[in-house]
Amino acid sequence: MKFRYLFITLLFFGILLFAMLSLVLEVSEEMNKPVSAPVAHPVSELSQATEPPADKPAQEVAPAPEQTATSVQTPATVTPPAVNAPAGDLYDPQKWEAIRKKYAGIQPAEWGEQVSGAVQKVNVPQSNERILFLTFNVYTKNQPEVFNFLRQHNIKATLFLTGTWVRRNAGQAREIGALPALFEIGNHGNRNIALSVNGAVAYERRGTGSLAAALDEVTAGAEIIKDATGQTPRYVRSFFNYTDNVVVAALKEAGIKTIGVTVFADGGGLFGTEKIKDQILNAPGGAIILLSINPNYPNIFNGLKATIEEIEQQKLPVRFEHLVNFESYFHYR
Q1: Are 180 and 231 in contact (CB under 8 A)?
Q2: 192 touches 218 (CB < 8 A)
Q3: What is the pTM for the complete model shown?
Q4: Residue 268 pLDDT
Q5: What confidence tens digit (pLDDT) does each residue in 159-188 have?
Q6: Angle at the Cα of 250 (from 247 to 255), degrees rounded to 5?
Q7: Quick one: pLDDT at residue 11?
Q8: For the chain, which domains are there?
Q9: Are 239 and 205 in contact (CB under 8 A)?
Q10: Dist CA 4 CA 6 (whole Å)
Q11: What is the mean pLDDT of the segment spanning 237-264?
């Protein structure tokens, strides 16, 4: 009987000792586990609006969703990554001819302002600064005071020029091309028409009638822009942002990226000064913002001035950057 009680007692203490040792081992393993890094959430998708035609205001569009003008994210600043230059000449004739042959006869599945393969926004890293991309469509008319204002306030911008504008304003083109630290030069086409492989229509204006014609529209504009500004455009934006997915894919294979719009800030000239300012100041980080160079709508320039002045006076953590410095963060549709 005594041996039975002794056996039960020893068994009880053995179980208790085993439980204590298991608990110690479990705590030790938890303490040695690596800590997981927090997951960064991408910027939410925004709808894109159209570009205004020359001398004609577009229909009013809804403003971008409200965003605060400040951020509490870290790190404090974002340093642009090194830009990898495309291999070889962007506009090498043999390369473009090979691309023409490769994509010839392919029918598009998409046509419009937002097609697969086009850049819609930039997924910039989170920081205390809100990085925005200010872009201007420069198609027919000149407005030197806009360029002068940007230069005086040291504001970076991407200017999408047409061959037509460059031919009419060669002196101005040389001036802005000589300031690459401020003005990044993009291609708005030779004649500023929609890029299509089958003559699709955008706002009652027929686009290019073939892939060859679409690529010629881009290369002809690029040649004129390069000769006048000294900069080789690596970005394209077509008339009204209208294109098809075949043209976008062909251009991308050549090393040319099609740039869309996140925030259509001037509403085709319909928006007043305050609304334009609100559109820009409320744009989310990484937004590609569109304004037009058109002296027929002075409210566009006034809205730009009001925006920059408020940023400077209020010391808002907003920074304008060039697209080329953030290619690795491009968000393609």
Answers
A1: yes
A2: no
A3: 0.77
A4: 87
A5: 999 999 999 999 999 999 999 999 999 999
A6: 120
A7: 54
A8: 115-332 (3.20.20.370)
A9: yes
A10: 5
A11: 97
% of residues, the chain, pLDDT over 70? 74
**Which residues sit opposite 254 in a β-bridge?**
none
* Residue 193 and residue 242 in contact, taking contact as beta carbons nearer than 8 Å: no
Q: Which amino acid is at 200?
A: A
For the purposes of burial, counting CB atoms within 10 Å of the CB of 257, is it exposed (0-12), middle (13-18) or buried (19 or more)?
buried
**Residues present in the chain in total:** 333
3-class DSSP string for the chain: CHHHHHHHHHHHHHHHHHHHHHHHHHHHHHHHCCCCCCCCCCCCCCCCCCCCCCCCCCCCCCCCCCCCCCCCCCCCCCCCCCCCCCCCCCCCHHHHHHHHHHHCCCCCCCEECCCCCCEEEECCCCCCCEEEEEEEEECCCCCHHHHHHHHHCCCCEEEEECHHHHHHCHHHHHHHHCCCCCEEEEECCCCCCCECCCCCEECCEECCCCHHHHHHHHHHHHHHHHHHHCCCCCEECCHHHCEEHHHHHHHHHHCCEEECCCEECCHHHCCCHHHHHHHHHCCCCCCEEEEECCCCCHHHHHHHHHHHHHHHHHCCCEEECCHHHHHHHEEEC
Average pLDDT over all residues of the chain: 82
For residue range 231-247, what is the model confidence (pLDDT) as tens digits? 999 999 999 899 999 99
Cα 79 from Cα 96, distance rounded (Å): 34
